[in-house]
Model the fold of this input.
Amino acid sequence: MNVFTQALSNGTLLFVGAVLTAVAAALLIASPELKQVLRYTRHGLVLGSLLMLLSGAPLHPLIYLMFLAAAVAAIIAMRCDTMKPVRRRWCGAVALIAALGMILMETPWQLNPQLPDGNVTRVVVIGDSISAGLADNERTWPVLLAEARPQWNVVNLAQAGAQLADALHQADNIPDGPCIVVLEIGGNDMLNLNGAKRFADDLDRLLQKVCTPDRRVVMLELPSAPLMSEYVRAQRRLSRRYGVHLLPRRIFCAVLAASNSTTDGLHLSAKGHAAISRWISRTIEPAMLLE
Done:
């Protein structure tokens, strides 16, 4: 995964585009009559808007439409020689507010969740080949987690090639009693183009099954391409509904993009498994028994 692919799949382009748009809008507000400034401002608004649209950030389509309308209005205002400076300032202010608003809406999803304190001793992993590995003797991240935290009982139910429908069967084998359930699943559904509605329906059924009062559930947010944000939008919507702790895709993407962290650009190498193990360990540690 190269730098540009990583930026496309982890949502970074939204912030880059929003900052560029905000700077351009601020220049329009400050200097609505200087033609040299207006030219650079127009280029900044166009580039910033394109980057935000390419970001794949799973915001509601209406949010994107509102932002696009504000950006287009500001661009038209700069090209219209007869428009009064005060109206240009108003158009710039609306574009500035729209860009900052999108930053504020997306930022909370970029933060790693904080689990409440607890003393759980069992971790159950439901997933696909990212967690199960491709070889029988592969030292996967659940294996490494169990070795690093011997006081934790790590149960790995993941299966290579699994999709959400298969995860429902994995969930049948979750042992009774309190536990942390780690959901690393859904990537194969997205890669196989199963459809966002089917994805959401299957994920809804899975969360209904695994989310019980004696379990804490964490789910890895999926890296996604610009035209596949519906899958991540479903993850976010359902994580709110069921109280699931959603781990931001930017961290997962950073692991996949790191040098020698994958064997083929997707499946984890030993280095990648170690990085995921450390990330999961830090995330769930507050809820686990530490001695």
Remarks:
- Residues 85-106 form the longest helix (22 residues).
- The beta strands are 122-127, 153-156, 179-184, 215-220, 245-247.
